Each structure stands twice: as structure tokens, then as C-alpha cells.
Request: fold
Amino acid sequence: MSITASGISVRYPGSDAPAVDGVSMSLEPGELLVIAGPNGSGKSSLFRALLGMIAVEHGDIEIDGRALGRWRRNELARVVGALTQREEPVFPQRVRDAVMLGRWARLGPISPAGEADLAAVEEAMRLTHTEQFSERGTDTLSGGEWQRVRLARALASNPRYLLLDEPGTALDLAHEMSVLELLRQLADTGLGVLAITHQLNTAVQYADRVLLLDRGRVEGIGAPAELLTSEVVSRVFQWPVQVQSLPGGAPHLVPQRLDRHNGTGQACERSSVEKGVT
Reply:
């Protein structure tokens, strides 16, 4: 039981280089996998490939041992919940109704919602702290509120896997952290969670593994504290970075100012975190 990609490559029309180049990875039940990398490293292309939104040029993708191409869309929607990077409401609707759309794969196009469907929607809104504006229109929401409603919609399907592209977009610090807390809780209950993020310092505190991409290829995959060294992060992101250790062992990335004379990162005094002061 897992989502696996074996040597997959994705190339967009007219592009000389593949956006995803021979990537192999897996998402296991009960884990939180964070995917990171610079802009243009292939993160969103990999995300779309795993969901069958774009075709792969080479390689194979399987979900629970079954080739992705053999899943019907409504079947896949019952197993995999997804949050894409960008989405604007097509038309205004009540928030509760927007979250109910997450049940479409289980309900069908015309079946009325039953008790189980209503309960799933209520639970999804409770988990995402969206119940307080459940009767509002989606056109009245802030960007962060709309992001949380979209997450509730993905959860309402009761999936086995949850794939999210930049789930912290438009969220303030408290709501970003509450989403990460929720994703960790969901993984601990057996859900396989994959999250693409640029917010490494917050996400790695919750991740079981990090998949680091660079120019479409896997730079490394492993436990955050083992993978995210100063050398690796500085090379991949092409900027000098110090990696310190937080209490508990999670890595903390500190980008360095550039020395005006030689373009290298300035040496900085060891912080209280690095010294082990809590």
C-alpha cells in the first residue's frame, strides 16, 4: 500500500530539458513526506504527474500496486485527496456547499447527501477551523480562509492519501502551523501525506522524510536532520545557508548575507540555538 513513482520523467511541449528527470520516490501510509527545492526544480510537475494531471514521458506510477492509468477519476478521488497550488472559485457558493464537493466521488452527480456525508463535511470543517464561516459565501473569504476551505474539501472525501502543493499559501503564522499540526496528526492516524513547500523551517519540524529536488532530479531523500546539511542546502538553493539544530533535532536553515567583497556568506556568531540554549 503506497504511492510509488519509478524513474518518471515529464517534458513539456517545446522544452529541451525535462521538468522531471528520472525521479523515483514513494509515499507510505502513516508518513508525512515534504518535497522541497528551488523554483523550477520540478516540484509541482511531480505533483501533477502523481495525480495523473499530466502525462509522463518515461517511468511508471502506481497507487496501491495499481498503475495510475488504470484508475478511473472517481475511483482515484476516493483514495487521493489533493490541494493544488492555485485555484479561484468558479462562482460564489456557500462554504459548507464548497466543502461538500469533496464528497462527489462517493455521492455521484445526483445522489443526495446522507448522514455519513454530512458528518464527513462537519469533521473536515472542524479540523480546518472553517466551521465558524460555514454559512458565508466563498466570495467573501480572504486568501487564507479560502485555502483552509479547499483543504477541508480535500479532507471531506476521507482519502487514504493527501497530496498538497504549497498548503501554507496565504496563511498567517498561526494558521500555517495549525495546518502542519493537522497534517502530522493525520499522518499519525495512517494517512499518507505529501506536502510541497518553500517553508522548510516550519515543515521539517513535522516531516518524516524530505525529498529534495534540483533541476528535475532527486538531490536526496531522507530524514530532515540527515539530508539537510549546510553543504547540500547551499548547493541546491545556490545561496549560502547555515543549518543549525533545534531542540529535538530538527534542522533550522539560516540564509547568510553575502560578503560584498567576495560573494561568500558572512561568518556569523553561533546563535543560542546552535549553542544548545533553549
